[in-house]
Every structure is written in C-alpha cells, then in structure tokens.
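Hi R.,

Here's the chain you asked about this morning:
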Amino acid sequence: MNNKQLLALAVVAACASAAQAQSSVTATGLVDMYIGSMKAPGDDGRTSTLGSGGMTTSWFGFKGTEDLGGGLKASFLLTSFMRADTGTPGRFNGDIFWSRDALVSLSGDFGALTLGRTVAPNFVPTISMNPFGDSFTFSPLVLHQNVSLFNKSGWQKSNPSDTGWGNQVIYSTPKVGGFSGNLHYQFGEQAGEGGKNNIGLNATYASGPLAVTAFYETVDLSNPVPTVLDQNYRNWMVGTSYDAGFAKAYATYGQTTGKDTDSKIKTASLGATVPLGATSRILAGWAHSKLQDSNAKRDTVSVGYNYDFSKRTDGYAIVMYDKVKDFGNGTSFGVGIRHRF
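And here is the predicted structure, written out as tokens:
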C-alpha cells in the first residue's frame, strides 16, 4: 500500500470517527422493585406484594441524537413502561407498548420542536414539586392527581387525562434567565370531532435555591389511546420549592373543573427533603384533596428514607397513611431498590 492509499485510508477513518462522534444510539432504562404490605382506604384487607415501581415506574428503551451542525440537533426517544415483578409490558393491561415515549425532535438556539408521544404538561411540574418525585405508589401528590382507587371508596384521580399525551406537538423555549416553558397541543384525530383536542402549557423559573412552576391544561381527550371525554376539563397547578441546604421544602395548589359543571376538586400539598450527609435523605409529604359541594375528601401522608448506593442505584423504605372520608384509612409500607442503566 503506497503513501497516497495510506493517506486516503486515514482520511476515511477520521471521517468515520467524526461521524460516530456526531451521532449516537443508546439503550436506557430503569428497574424499580419493592417488597411491601399495602392497604388503601376502602380495601377489605391488606395485600402483601413484590411490586414494580415503588419510587419510579420501571421502563426501558432507546434514545439517539445526531449533530446536524450549526447548533442544530435531531433526536429520537422510544421508551416503554413495564411491570418488572411479572415481566409484563405496560403500566396496566391494555397499555400501549411505547406508552412512555415515542418521539422525534429538532433542537437548536430557537429551543426545541417535538413530535409524537411524551409527557403531558402536568407531569414535570408535579414530579418536581414533591419529595417523592414520580412515585405512583407512595407520592401523596401524584396519587391524588393521577391514581384512582378501584375499590369501595370509588375515589377518582383529579387529572382527567394521563401524564403522557400521544399525537402531540410541543414547542420548548430555550432557557433564558432561569425561565423555561413548553407549549403542548394534542390532535384529537376523532372523525366528526375536529374541535376535540388537548392544549396545555407549563413554565418554570429556577434561580439559586428557589424554583417556581405552573401548568394549565384544557382536556377533551383521555389517553394513552385518545378518546373523547364526556366533557371538557380545565386542570391547573402552581408549585414552589426552596432549598435551604439543611432541608428542601415544597408546596403546591391546584384545581380541576369540568366545563359544564361548577363542581371542582381542589388539591394542596406540602413536602420536605432533609439530607443526611451526601448519600441519604429523609422524605416527607402530605396531600389533601376535597371535592367542592361534597363531603368527599382525602388526606395522604408519606414518610421515607432514601439511600444512594451509587450514582445509578439507590434504596428506599417508605410508610404511607391514606384516609378517605367515610371509607376509613389504610397504612402501606414498602422497601425497595431502584437501578438506572
């Protein structure tokens, strides 16, 4: 092989290496399992369980990015929820496969434009303003907003839709002076129902120890498979957090109202995270919901301990007290481990 051929080979190898550096595809996910004893108000008795998703719903998938040059990037995300305790796909029977994310996006100095299925406007503000994050098992705020009790109590979640929307377009602003925001539009794609859609926005301001966030949604459609609801709903929440070093405090307030009724559900929450050194923390949260013009109300309190084994693996132990008026109370507890990859 002569010098010109060697030079050409070196140039090709350098170009291939540069192309690989500019684009990537990665397998990613999280597995969360816990052992617990659960009893919700309205249950006939306790249930011993080895469950999935004590602190975070288990999921897996793929993500990729490509540098298009000039500050422009393209990316995709395909992620699926799973119940790791049984190896069953989805959050529940009948859940669509890519129910967490199925999207493509373009980002640059202008912000980002995202097309596909991903989080609804309510999701990030809710999980960022409570100490238990996105726990659909032990977070009082998440339970009140997003988890109905399918038992004698008949308690219904306040969020009329889902934490994720399909068929949606999102514009995300660049972060300017601590401010960022997202505008969401979900196409209804319902024959003869051209005006049915979901529209929402959220905004966050974060500077130093203080963060403030809010979301607002008008909802015609349920999810993950969009179907027309019996009426339009308005759903909003404001929240704030302050990190004083020795503790981080959270507070939220929100309402859900039906368009054709004056009835509304009001939800307030308080919480705190207290660090115990660099690798562990105490978590505490409370949520209260009340249905206006009704005796129906619910109070939930959770207290937990979270320990970081590493940057990717942590363990937790949580006790939760839950009470629904006229249906008694229940106490649940769980001990689990969460691993990210």
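One quick note: The longest strand covers residues 23-38.

Cheers,
M.
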